[in-house]
């Protein structure tokens, strides 16, 4: 009995610590353990609640979405300062164990801003450019393939799609498309 009470107190202590605001964190409403501010958000008119928080705490305040802290900025001047003047400081993505396990800390879209992200972005852009991104020649090829596909489909309207006819049409479309794109 005593051990379970001590374990319960330790768990509650860590839950409360998890929802405490870190140092140098903007002010915000009181957050519940585990749920954070989710119960306070209005489902009917969330913008009204956000506006109320802006009036109470200013253009920069914090919320807890579950047990994860989030900083909310509003107002053109503050947004411009955050995104333009201090863009590198705000360039990261939220990281958690689930996302890191899926992406293995690689990739571009969900990766945190840093040297690895820059290298992956550079590689992705270089590869896409090698495949024709940004060139009109690739666009012309794609339009040609679409025209051929439309013409092939229109010529087969009303024909039976059973048996070999379907396979011949599919193989013809795939062969022609892959032959010209590759």
From TrEMBL:
TM segment ranges: none
Gene3D superfamilies reported in the protein's UniProt record: Cytochrome P450
Any GO MF annotation of the entry: oxidoreductase activity, acting on paired donors, with incorporation or reduction of molecular oxygen, reduced flavin or flavoprotein as one donor, and incorporation of one atom of oxygen
Record keywords, A-Z: Iron, Metal-binding, Signal
GO biological process, one term: organic acid metabolic process
Span of the signal peptide: 1-19
Domain of life: Eukaryota
Cofactor: heme
Cited PANTHER family: CYTOCHROME P450 2F2-RELATED (PTHR24300:SF327), CYTOCHROME P450 508A4-RELATED (PTHR24300)
Cellular component terms (Gene Ontology): cytoplasm
A Pfam family matched in the record: p450
Family indicated by similarity: Belongs to the cytochrome P450 family.
Name by which UniProt lists this protein: Cytochrome P450, family 2, subfamily X, polypeptide 9
Organismal lineage: Eukaryota, Metazoa, Chordata, Craniata, Vertebrata
